[in-house]
Amino acid sequence: MWTTSHTGTTTASPAAVWAMIEALHSGTKIGPESDTFELHGPFAVGTTLTVTPQGQDPMESTITHVEPERVYADVTVYGDITLAFRHDLAPLPGGGTTVTHTLVIDGAGSDSVAPELGPQISADFPAALAELFAAAEHGAPLTDSSESPAAVAPAEA
User: Fold this and answer.
1) pLDDT value at position 148?
2) One Pfam family of this protein, by short name (predicted)?
C-alpha cells in the first residue's frame, strides 16, 4: 500500500467547499485546470462516474463515501490495483475550512507500481485544491482562465 495527502485551508465555509466538490463530481468544471467528470446517476455512494484527467484517457470510478460538508471519496480499479481518492473537510474555529485530499494505492502489485504512479497522480493535488478553494470563495465555478486561484496555505500531511 502507498499513500499521500495534501492539505490546504480556505476562508470558504465547508458548505461552499462542498458545493464545489459536488458540482465538480457532477460534471461542472470549476476552473480551467479541472478534470472532467461525468456522473452516471445520483451523487451518492455506489454511483459510477467517468473521470477524464486533462490530457489522459477516461477512467471509471465508483463513489464510496458521501457525507455532505465532511467527506467525499471514490475508488478506481485497474486490474489488481485500487486507487482510492478522498476529500476530508474540517471547519476551522474562526471560520473557513481545512481540506485534505488523499490518495491510497493498494492491491497486489501496488508495491511495485505505486512509488512511480502515486507521485504522477498526486502531483496536481496542490493546484486542484487551489482551484477548488478559489471557486468556493467566489461562490461559483471559475470560468474565466484569467481568474487566478486563491491563495492556499498548504501543509503536507
Assistant:
1) 39
2) Polyketide_cyc2
